[in-house]
Amino acid sequence: MSIDIDTARRVASLARIRVEEDALPELASEFNAVLGFIEQLTEVDVEGVEPMTSVTPQRLKRREDVVTDGDQQDKILKNAPDAREGFFAVPKVVE
Amino acid sequence: MTDLNKLTLAEARDGLRKGEFTSSDLTEACLTSIKAAQKLNAFVHDTSEQAREQAKAADARIAAGDAPNMCGLPIGVKDVFATKGQPTQAASKILDGFKPEYESTITTKLFDAGAVMLGKLNMDEFAMGSSNENSVYGPAVNPWKIDDRDLTPGGSSGGSAAAVAADLCLAATGTDTGGSIRQPAAFTGTVGIKPTYGRCSRWGVVAYASSLDQAGPMTKSVRDAAIMLEAMAGHDAKDSTSADLAVPDFEAMITGDIKGKKIGIAKEYRIDGISDEIAKLWDDGAAMLRDAGAEIVDVSLPHTQYALPAYYVIAPAEASSNLARYDGVRYGHRAQIDASEGIDDMYEKTRAEGFGREVQRRIMVGTYVLSAGFYDAYYNRARKVRTLIKRDFEQVFDSGVDAILAPTTPSAAFGIGEVTGKDPIEMYLNDVFTVTLNLAGLPGISVPTGLSSAGLPLGLQLIGRPWGEGDLLNIAHSLEQSAGFVSKPTKWW
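YS: structure for the whole thing
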């Protein structure tokens, strides 16, 4: 499996990380190094093996479906790069 | 009353209770040593004001006879723990300026027990790295030195390890996703334990790979690790993976008696390229445990060689999902955009500017292995291999083995800039002995047991049964006593 420049560009876009065109070849080559390394996993016989979902055998705890938290607008907005009138402000999304 | 910063947690606790000195004395001694150690770049955020207040409050508690074990003891906190009102940025530019409105469960527990926070400690960005070189603050430096070169303290908890080894604090918190507590402990001649997955709450710990991340203490002795782990551990309703189990008195479980314990030596850990020095260290460690009354047995962990590749699928996959939250909207850095650009440009530029190179690489690898068409081939296959790796350990423990002895690292500390070439795999190999435990959720501890021929510390790792930290600490204590490692770095900073 080899990653070409188009795949590198697509992955960067899916990850929402801007990568300039001239940096794509190096990125693709780094991907190939990592993927070459993880390729070893194909040697393992995993027939009939369940994929792990939880490392310790435990059932997630249940609780009543009630409101346990809230009324923290100020705290939640405190670290926002741009907060206005009680909201997070972002560039225009809809024309 | 000089050199209070050099005390262990146990010594300082006992001295405080006897009234030989105060927490304020201890705290000032540490703050002075921190100020004089700028060259180590271990402490990256100063919380001395909070430290002095906490020390004063601790002294009042001690005077009133209400002093839990950690009361009045000054520690450093890795920058990955959310600390209320104090900078918390996991060594990333993308969290520049972030000051949480809440306190992590671990620091809450430590503060409730009376611990004093001296400052925040350097680390690899988002805990991704094995040398502390991937940090927005620049690399932390190992206090150990053998020539002109600055050595790395390991990573990702490199600042924690450097600070403890250089006596800037009595102990520090760390986190371990693939070896990030144990490898830096080995590189600096200190002790570090990664508890069983679920023993310590992850709430308020900046996430890297949630199914692997565990917090633990980094200390000057095994006894100190027991004391501090007990204060950090316990069930937390705010972390659904935290185990609802009682926390034993770990320190009381250090009895010094390991007669009849079965210690496994896994043949698969005798990898190609292991140095003679590390092989001898390992043999010596086994001999020490045998002399102390343990039985040494050969065991097999057949899927060991697949642990690192499985890790480099699972950890990036979880990271790509966890780090999706850094989008320039709710906290941290936001990139400037032109009038012609939209919200996707804002996301992409923010993440390109905010994340360092290794973090970007892992996010994108994770994105790739989770993308349509590759999910089964990579991610699901890695999760199946993870099941097999865990099964290897279960079979060994079912056969009556109490702990497994292995090297912590394939080598001693290396120089800054020496392993950051074009091939990321070279750095990843540092975690070859440590990463299997994270995949299996098991506890592991690194204990310094010797010096390399060049004069750098080397550590051995003991791997325990799930929830068996008490037994593990007892065996580690025996190894520590037999090895008698007392070397300290010579002060040059």
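YS: worth flagging: Chain A has a mean pLDDT of 92.
IM: good catch. Also Chain A touches chain B through 52 residues (CB under 8 Å).
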